[in-house]
User: Fold these one by one.
Assistant:
Number 1:
Amino acid sequence: MIQRGIATFTLDYGKCPKWLFDRMVELGREMMRVIVAEEGPEALVRRIGDPVWFQSLGTVLAFDWNASGLTTILTAALKEAIRGEERDLGVFICGGKGKTSRKTPEEIASWGMRMAFDPARTSLFAYNSRMAAKVDSALIQDGFQIYHHSFFFTKNGAWTVVQQGMNLENQSARRYHWHSSKPKDLIREPHSGISSQYTVSSVLNMTAEKSEKNRAMSTELVGQSFGTLMKDIALLRRHSSSLSRMISLGNSGGKQLTLLELEDREFVTHPVVEEDFSKSRYLEKVLSKVCDAHPDSYEKFVAMEGVGPKTIRALSLVSEVIYGAKPSYEDPARYSFAHGGKDATPYPVDTETYDQTIDTMKKYVEKTKISPIEKRKLVKKLVRSNT
């Protein structure tokens, strides 16, 4: 079963001082040793995949609850904390921020060779890492550009992805979590543990259950000939300007629009209004390549080299506007706080989750090899940050 969560935070630009980073490394090492000793490496990787738990860990070690820098610095600190102990702990961390994130496949391959993993398993790790990045950048078009990607895994096959995107327009960052010990489907993602300080009014979310018909139609479109597909693309290009005008009329006069096989419905707004359907040689090149390959599933289509947000969006709009297969435009991010608010905004506090998070973290802190005074400070900070 795949679990995913999304958390959104204010954008940080400051640099973590060396003394703070060193402290995070030391405490992080102790925490990870305790968790692996108590519950095993799979449990540690599973907990990293929980956005609430990950945020709590970062808060205990150093950061404010809503700081975007928590993601990048905490991941880097944990990676440094287990350096040289990966074999003993049975946990491996690859990737990171910026250029380091692009080295994730190389690092996974390197560990696969050093640990003599089954090549098939190593390849699967690399595939899951790459697909997680592509899904959250191309299938969830929320305006956040991915700039941090890290991949946690164990030798037994459990893995977690933690990645973060930034939106410069509203000065916020959004973090995406994945966890799966037995991945079955990387496309249809039921979201859980979703928290956010900022939501987007219209997000093309091709991972949603509501987008199933649109995914199926997109797959059918690329399964036909390139010439047939381009006829639909050309039709949409030709009618996009008139469609915009007709939508405007619909806004003012309540008229309904029927375009080819488009189902009857009243339009108020639609992404096609702002979409540029002028000729794009790159888009046509990608679509030609995809049609030649005839992918028999949406996942195989998405996994192909060159397929990105524009390709996904073009096929999604053809599927909706011409064939009536509407995707989801709802932002998968829902809530403003991990456990809810004391004033019941945006929803009442989930006391069970709240208490469980604190109790679990307190247990780990108590078993670390640090001074009693430091332990009390960490526990107080955890409780204060979660209230």
Note: The first helix runs from residue 18 to 39.
Number 2:
Amino acid sequence: MKIIRILSRNSNLAKIQARLVADEIREKYPDINVTHSYRDTKGDIDLTTPLSKMPEQGVFTSDLRDALLNDETDMVVHSWKDLPIEMPKGTNIVSTLARSDSRDILFFKKDSIKKNSLKIYSSSPRRERNLSLSLPHLLPWKISKTEFHPLRGNIQTRFSKFLNDPLDGVVIAKAAIDRLSEDEDFVELYKKNSNSFSWMILPNSINPCAPGQGALAIEVAENNEFANSIAASINNESDFDAVSRERKILSQYGGGCHQKIGISIRKINLGEITNIIGLTEEGIELKESTFKQIPKLKVEQKVNKNKIFPTEKEESVFFERKFIQSTLKKIEAMENKGIFISRQDALLDGIRINSSNILWTGGVETWKKLAAKGYWINGTSDSLGKNNEPPCTIFDDLDWLNFTHDRNQEKSSMEKFISYELIPRKDEIKMKDKQYFYWMSGSAFEYALELYPNIIEANHACGLGASYDIIDRQISGKVVPFLNYEDWKDQMTADTDE
């Protein structure tokens, strides 16, 4: 019987990740015997120096790589984000499994809610910079200052330190938390203390991940042909490509864990989204969000502004939104539910939401508006729709309710909870002679179609979420997705009104 020897770091998380790779190999090659060994690295032994100040790249990987070169093992399983950007010769990163969640999660003590000055555990310059900018808009109270304190150790050590120390929060990769659902001790620790903290999953659009976060890298010695062939056969090519390009982008700025740069490439059914946010060592601010449509979706470039609708976002407001007061008591009585909110109108200021519920928004702007109303938001679908960025919980299963309006025609597995009405405005909607449309919602498209049936023959575009699904059902294959209205307008319109 042929043998594959897998080596990983000695932490519980690293062992789980190595088992994931072993399971893939066993499923494809049941006759191969997979064995495991574990080793502490320099980064595991030195738990006092902040990662960003350690002199050597690859402090979690170079010791394991030496075992490959010395033929002590056949494969090493790494967290891809631990690898140096420039890999030494002698070994190759051959493959990756399907990528797990690439986002960060912030755990926050309930006793710290309403504090004006916060102290948060994080050893990542990227996280520190991005959270300094974004956290004031995501919390349901005003803060004046956020301090970050370095934290080392495995996930359970870091989480325990957060629970027992006086600091307010800790930031951890969500993929690590998800994988530790297999660790009974960690799950017990989490659930035992879950009433003492809240959490929020930070969206990639404003807090892009470290390159490779959530992905596993399988490293093999160049001269080990058998191990190379086995590793290559379990590769997820799409995720390998995305991670490789994230790392290539970071390499343009020097690479390394000391960088204040996050890079996220996400592939969805309609195309690919790239988010880059950070600050280079030269002090240059990076902020880029791009969406590359799948090849079959093409649009005509640069048309006159008098042919498009809306020319400004305000023109697309077709309805007044009225909260249904009779739902108030039902909402306040809800417990242990997941509540999905696509627009802030679904909740009034001051409604008491039981803390056992999870609140999830359709996009970041709705998150910010609800936070300003005093609601703790756990996460967002980041304007990508429930299918591309589904709402989730941590170690719990909840029934999800979609807080929505009475005209909602979306097809979803979520139960609809009608909390507000759409009342058509009496203003005339001037779109009769327009040829290019961008729709902010599926209900706006359906209402406009009632008024002007002929517009169905025009050119239509919208965002990446539920609006696309609703419109595509009526004009299948003819609606073009964009990241947002501003991108559509910029691509469609000429600089002149002539």
Note: The longest helix spans residues 12-28.
